[in-house]
Design brief:
Radius of gyration: 26 Å
Distance between the termini: 22 Å
Largest sheet: 7 strands, mixed
Strand order of the largest sheet: 3-7-1-14-11-12-13
Shape: globular
Strand content: 15-25%
């Protein structure tokens, strides 16, 4: 079903193309899908974090009412594993369990209730094994091996200058932690698989990357790519959690076995176990500076918990490592970054992709350095910010736009909120809101800043590209444009941006978008702040090709053009982390103003001032919405969001116990943009969706430190942290970084995942 037309071009706050159907309830999400005579699929998942599978008894489940199929690893038709970076994750566990919630079997039955009842009858004999639940424990020589080849997934070494010889007047050492965070998308993992007459399967699912889903699914089903057809179902948010496969292979296996359509839709608890999370981090950082505040050295040890399987961890660790010294001119830098396997739930992509964890560390350390030097925190940052022509720790030269100074100065210039009276407010306006038991007896205000940056698109020599087809045809009221793209809009507003580009370039009164599917060329993943640039560039190129055709005469018959957009080439890093790994960068600064009830440890965020460098603003209202949403996720990590684990078991797998910010927690966000177009990018575009998450967490925590005067070196900050009941997160010393041969400890026999090979599938 095509979307409705929009009015408005580039630079206008055009109406969202999906706004009306979502508000009225007509928009079909993945969990709304139905098919005639369909079955329901349900997973059987392990209760253990680490175990051997000794037996699987399906007899009772097979005989249960309504059951049409019960499948295990032995029933996987083709390749037994999948993965974005490495094919290390089983479709269904056969011999070993590596995390709580790992799927062992799948059931199809006539009704959801029958499928659930049958799944409960599957008897699995487990022999529990030792659990590796701590990322530092994973590095010890005597630690159990999560995988036979060891627990180190990837190690990154970056050396720029000579940190050991650097001389400084002042040194600061810091240790910082961030917790595991959930993407908390409102729409759960869901989809429908329908067997086809040609022996293939049609899959309708929530995803972020249609073509790489297919490239992973087809080998597991032992089918050629052309017999696995994927169409995007309505996605209720993603933020990285839909980059990995979830129910797609399982539903397809059941559909092919039964010859009937099979629907699978996770509940909230299963969703927590069925998708990846943000990597917990531990960062040791040492800054050295002259007495006038010029940085001379940065020495960073970074450790990420990747959980049981690789997912996108190899890419996350290089992102985190390359950003670990901050957006500052530092002549001497050493970064040692390691991501490890544990028996915790798998971690992978989440908004920010490694940048939020290190931004929390380097910005906290910058505040400590400012205090030690007696320099204003904003001024210290201004004395060290990168700009066009700066050399980054990887040796990459900033050749694109980099208005970092202006971003920070404009953020600092935004007026602070007016002081509120300590007494006599509406009770909801106190820290803690309606649950507060005081009325302003011990309130402290704090102000904190954070500056951060994030890359746009994929890195390390990856040939990132996007294809789009545009058709312009005559219509009764003027020309009509139709866009075909496999790009995913999961709520961020991409399709509106695409329509604005077409409207601007072709002047069409009506713009329609065909459903995203594998039937058109790949547009790449909706991640890495890339789609407005990449698919926007593809649509722009197709439109301008149509313009060239129209120069030959008036539009009398449909004109169709396809264009593939490539960004500038990048390179992999060498053994010292030197290279040209990133396409371009976006920069952001946020200032948080908080109020803390010092006796109760309750917090109210009074204001966030946000200034972002995004190259060019295509849709002002949509851009502001992206800032506010990203900031809310960063605020959540600062104050409340944490997947709580105990020996690998998630103890808060619900939105009752896993807390996310509500409308009452969301502060006013004053948003401004710096428009400094990126050379060679379509319209000068840069990414926007991740920046707020990168800087919001350190800004809020900095404001809390300013209010209460405590170290607060772990996010999220709890009431106990604020009142001093719990001591700061502690470390025994330098991060125990292992001596890893090369940059990748994963053996060759696993092979590279299809996320790094043959990524650009063209039109079938």
């Amino acid at each position: 079903m095509s979307t409705t037309a929009i009015r408005g071009g580039v630079g206008e706050s055009a109406r969202r193309v999906d706004g009306v159907p979502k508000v009225t309830g007509d928009f079909a999400f993945g969990s709304d899908l139905r098919a005639e005579n369909m079955l329901w699929g349900v997973s059987v998942r392990s209760p253990h974090a680490s175990a051997s599978i000794r037996s699987i008894d399906l007899s009772a489940a097979v005989r249960a009412p309504g059951v049409k199929a019960v499948l295990t690893a032995a029933d996987v038709p083709g390749r037994k594993t999948f993965g974005l970076e490495f094919c290390d994750q089983p479709v269904l566990a056969a011999d070993v369990i590596r995390y709580v919630g790992e799927p062992v079997a799948v059931v199809a039955a006539e009704t959801l209730e029958q499928a659930r009842a049958a799944a409960a009858l599957v008897q699995v004999g487990y022999e529990p094994l030792p659990v590796v639940s701590d990322m530092e424990q994973a590095l010890r020589e005597d630690a159990p091996r999560v995988h036979d080849f060891g627990n180190v997934l990837r190690h990154i070494h970056i050396l720029h200058g000579d940190p050991d010889a650097a001389e400084a007047d002042v040194w600061v050492d810091g240790y910082y932690e961030t917790a595991m965070q959930d993407q908390a998308a409102l729409g759960p993992e869901a989809g429908l698989a329908v067997p086809a007459d040609d022996g293939g399967v049609d899959i309708y699912a929530v995803t972020q990357w249609i073509h790489v889903d297919r490239q992973q699914i087809a080998p597991c089903l032992d089918l050629p790519l052309e017999k696995v057809r994927i169409t995007l179902a309505g996605v209720g948010g993603a933020f990285g959690s839909r980059e990995d496969l979830h129910m797609q292979v399982h539903a397809a296996m059941l559909a092919l076995r039964t010859g009937r359509a099979v629907k699978m839709s996770y509940g909230r608890e299963e969703s927590f176990h069925g998708h990846v999370h943000r990597h917990p981090s531990r960062t040791w950082i040492r800054y050295g500076a002259t007495k006038d505040g010029k940085l001379v050295s940065a020495d960073v040890r970074l450790l990420l918990d990747g959980g049981a399987y690789a997912s996108s961890s190899p890419a996350v660790i290089i992102n985190a490592s390359t950003f670990a010294a901050g957006p500052y001119e530092v002549p001497n830098v050493r970064v040692e970054g390691t991501v490890v396997y544990t028996n915790n739930p798998p971690c992978g992509a989440m908004r920010g992709f490694g940048a939020p964890q290190v931004c929390f560390a380097y910005e906290s350390a910058m505040d400590e350095l400012a205090a030690k030097l007696g320099i204003d925190p904003v001024e210290l940052r201004l004395r060290n910010v990168v700009g066009k022509g700066s050399v980054l720790p990887t040796g990459q030269v900033l050749t694109g736009s980099a208005p970092v100074r202006e971003v920070l100065e404009r953020c600092a210039a935004i007026p602070l909120p007016e002081p509120e009276p300590e007494r006599g407010r509406d009770p909801i306006a106190y820290p803690g809101g309606a649950g507060n038991v005081s009325r302003g007896e011990s309130l402290r205000r704090g102000v904190g800043y954070a500056l951060g940056y994030k890359n746009v698109a994929y890195s390390e020599g990856f040939d990132d590209a996007a294809e789009a087809t545009v058709t312009l045809r005559p219509g009764p009221g003027g020309p009509v444009a139709v866009v075909e793209t496999a790009a995913v809009d999961y709520g961020q507003g991409l399709y509106t941006v695409v329509s604005q580009i077409v409207r601007t370039e072709l002047g069409a009164e009506e713009v329609f978008l065909e459903p995203a599917s594998s039937g058109v060329g790949s547009a790449g993943s909706t991640s890495a702040s890339r789609q407005s640039t990449m698919t926007g560039g593809a649509v722009l190129g197709a439109c301008r090709a149509i313009q060239e055709e129209l120069k030959r005469g008036p539009l009398e018959a449909p004109v169709t053009r396809t264009f593939t957009y490539h960004h500038r080439p990048t390179t992999a890093i060498d053994e010292n982390g030197q290279g040209d790994p990133h396409v371009s960068f976006s920069f952001a600064a946020e200032r948080a103003v908080v109020e803390v009830d010092e006796e109760l440890g309750l917090v109210r965020v009074l204001q966030i001032a946000a200034v972002q460098d995004i190259g060019r603003v295509i849709n002002p209202q949509g851009a502001e919405g992206q800032v506010e949403g990203a900031t809310a996720q960063g605020l959540g990590l600062a104050l409340m969001e944490e997947v709580r684990l105990e020996d690998g078991i998630i103890r808060n797998a619900s939105f009752t116990d896993y807390l996310i910010p509500t409308i009452l927690d969301a502060p006013p966000v004053v948003t401004e943009f710096v428009e400094d177009p990126e050379p060679d990018a379509p319209y000068g575009l840069k990414g926007i969706g991740e920046l707020g998450t990168v800087v919001a967490t350190p800004a809020v925590v900095a404001a809390l430190r300013d209010a209460v005067g405590r170290p607060l070196n772990r996010a999220p900050v709890t009431p106990d942290d604020l009142v001093g009941i719990r001591p700061p997160a502690a470390t025994s010393g330098r991060a125990p970084i292992p001596d890893v041969p090369g940059q990748n400890a994963v053996p060759e026999y696993l092979g590279m995942g299809l996320g790094q090979q043959e990524l650009m599938q063209r039109r079938d």
